[in-house]
Amino acid sequence: MAPPHFDIVARLREVADTGKHSDSQVAAAILSDADFATHAPINKLAEKAGVSEPTITRFCRMLGFEGTRDFKVRLAQSLAIAGRFIAPGPAQDENGSVTSVIARSAVDAVETVCNLINRDDLELAASLIAQAGMVRAYGSGGSSSMAATEMENRLFRLGIAASSHIDGEMQQMTAATSNKDTVIIAYSLSGEIKPLIEAVMIARRYGAKTIAFTAPGTKLAAAAELVMPFHIDEGTNVYRPSPARYALLALTDMLAMTVAEKIGAPAVERMRRIKNLQAMHANNATTLPLGD
Q1: Exposure class string for 176-205: b at 16+ Cβ within 10 A, else e
Q2: CATH number at residue 244
Q3: Spatial distance between the Cα atoms of 72 and 146, rounded to a whole number of angstroms
Q4: C-alpha span between 279 and 269 (Å, rounded)
Q5: Is 93 part of any domain?
Q6: Are residues 169 and 214 part of one domain?
Q7: Domain residues for 63?
Q8: Please, where are the H alpha helices in the chain?
Q9: At CA 135, angle to CA 129 and CA 139, rounded to 5?
Q10: If you placed Cys at 19, which of 24, 42, 72, 232 could pair as Cys (CB 3.0 to 4.6 Å)?
Q11: DSSP assignment, residue 185?
Q12: Strand partners, 96
């Protein structure tokens, strides 16, 4: 049995390039139509590769599998997870250029979260943050890390003590310092990042309020008290960066703006100070974003 993290596609490509003739033929045949390979009977696969049936069985065992069935199961799993990356389509689609694809995906992502957001939950989350003694934003990976850092960036200018942490151990250590005046904001596209989930559970144990931006029905959603649900369709274009980034930024801005409105004049005064400082360094400060 191949190990759990065995990359079957990478191994097939290696064999196709450097394996002996018959193995190279089999690997190339599988890679040319991996979906066919997962469903075809052994005789059809052998026919496609131009080899004998025993060669197919030997090939699967050479890769570390018990037989063709075991091999097909693992290949099917790989296809389900990352099949679109095995034989990617064109960088552009029939609906337009790269610029229009990116613009359309960003708009669709923002509209999706606008339709999902619950206004009452947004108001509740903003109230918790506006009254917090400390807000900690947690995120792991790419988009979630960026969103956590951006949340800190949005909140400090409103006069809220805020920090962001993208390292799992730091998330758990800072969570252990929580109390009833702490609010944890956790970001995760998958909702299944174990250190992040554990940090949220640790913080709750010490009385912190917990808010999660994640997909409904996930472990993170179950761990947090308040969930801002979202799920963005990643599509099939492997060249396009994930539009989930736009969704997370939109949610972050919605929450930050609601918090600012709740704080009111004190938040405006702090923003005025930042803008005043900005004017000392830029002649066009009036037209620039606040401190960005």
Answers
A1: eebeeebbbbbbbbebebeebbebbbbbbe
A2: 3.40.50.10490
A3: 38
A4: 15
A5: no
A6: yes
A7: 8-85
A8: 8-18, 21-32, 34-39, 42-49, 53-62, 68-82, 98-116, 119-130, 143-156, 168-175, 194-205, 219-223, 244-263, 265-279
A9: 115
A10: 24
A11: E
A12: 93
How far apart are alpha carbons 95 and 88 in whole angstroms? Answer: 17
Task: Please report where in the chains the tokens 């709750």 appear, as a residue.
Answer: 204
Q: How far apart are CA 159 and CA 269, in angstroms?
A: 9
Cβ-count burial 218-234 (b if 16+ within 10 Å, e if not): bbbbebbebbbbbbbee
Joined together, the tokens standing for residue 274 give 């930042």
Amino acid at the residue 223: A
Closest to 143 (Cα-Cα) out of 237, 244, 252: 244
Q: Which of 158, 190, 166 is nearest to 270 (CA)?
A: 158
Regarding whether 107 and 237 lie in a shared domain, the answer is: yes
Task: Check whether residue 173 and residue 221 sit in a common domain.
Answer: yes
Out of 164-178, 247-261, 265-279, pick the least confident.
Answer: 265-279
pTM over 0.85: no
Whether 126 and 171 map to the same domain: the answer is: yes
Which tens digits make up the pLDDT trace of 101-149? Answer: 888 888 998 998 898 889 999 999 999 999 999 999 999 888 899 999 9
Q: Which amino acid is at 187?
A: Y
For residue 242, pLDDT beyond 80: yes
